[in-house]
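tool_call: predict_structure(chain=1)
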Amino acid sequence: MNTVMTMDEAHESMRQMRQVFDVVRLLEAETVQKINENKKHPEGVDPCFAFWRKSHPCENCVSFKALEAKSKKVKMEFIDSVLYQVVAKYVEIDGKAYVMEMINCLDDDVMLDSEGRDRLLRKLSGYDDELYIDALTGISNRRYFEDQIRKMKASAGVAMIDLDDFKIYNDTFGHRVGDVVLKTAAKVIREGIRKSDIIIRYGGDEFLLVMPDISAEVFAEKLKQIRKNISEAKVPGYSQIHLTVSIGGTLSSGDTVEDAIIRADQYMYQAKLRKNMVVTTDVVSDGNLEEHESSRFRQKILIIDDSEFNRAILAEVLGGEFDILEAENGKEGLEVLEQYERDISLVLLDIIMPVMDGFEVLGEMVNRNWIDDIPVIMISSEDSENIICRAYEMGVSDYINRPFDTQVVYRRVYNTIKLYAKQRRLIQLVTDQVYEK
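tool_result:
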């Protein structure tokens, strides 16, 4: 549970908590303070001890202790031989201090052995940690994102942070070292953000950062500082490991965090093409470059299709994120490939074309060793098993039949480019290591 939230977020959090607790209450800090000072309730306030069927406030008020420590406190309360679990958590709602009380009545029929008692106490003191905290890094986990903020609409900066070459660390040094790398990165990120910001371990080596109420300029500077801090961080016990991250960020205003993540992920992918970079909505930056227009680093897709209509559809679907090159037959397509070669990130290739068909283009790409570095997705109305098998045997990465769903095409294109970019980076890293040795 966040400690800083809006009243709408507090009500949503209380709704979630009522699935776990019998009673969830919100107490104003001023009321809790006055009860503790005067041992009675302020005028016009329903006495909380009425809930406990007492004639006076509790001697050991867990809500006051939570308020005083600005943290979470837990206690067990016996009332007429019935055991209650009380969790009090300090929260700030719209800039004002409150204590959220969560209460469970533990039935007399519940029987616990010593092991069960220990498990219960661990559960009571850390129920939200077990649900929403990543055990390795200590930050929020993917479940927290899914349950609490996925559909949240807020004015915030949203960033995806991906560890460069994490698979290499795991494969070279082992998973234990990979865990140390993840904990180091999480610690650096957490130390460089505000208390109101949310950091989540979104995937294996990906972190999601949500920074509410932040300007575009400050957001971009924060991301650059995180990139710098991680590049300067030392991995305990492994001085030879030099960490870098690729970061993509976008501002969200009115749309959901989930929607903003899609954009941030696309910018993060652009950053990974060069590694150790920050790409935001408007600019790209890294340790060596000044700010550049992000369009300079957009991937190029070559569409080879004799149908102008088909090319127009694909260009419309992909043109927002990629630079589109077009050719109306295989011969023109090869001329474009000769001009740009490995600057082309993907080829979308039709089969049936005049002058030179798709399989002839594939044959030339194989002969010139382009097929290993430039992925090809065939898009055709030909759906016979022999045609599809032949395409895969010649090295295509994917095969899409017409008519197609535009969103499916976009996702498969995006995933293929991302996979090949990681493969290129891996090959380059291994090559550099070989030359260094």
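agent: The first strand starts at residue 4 and ends at 5. Proceeding to next step.
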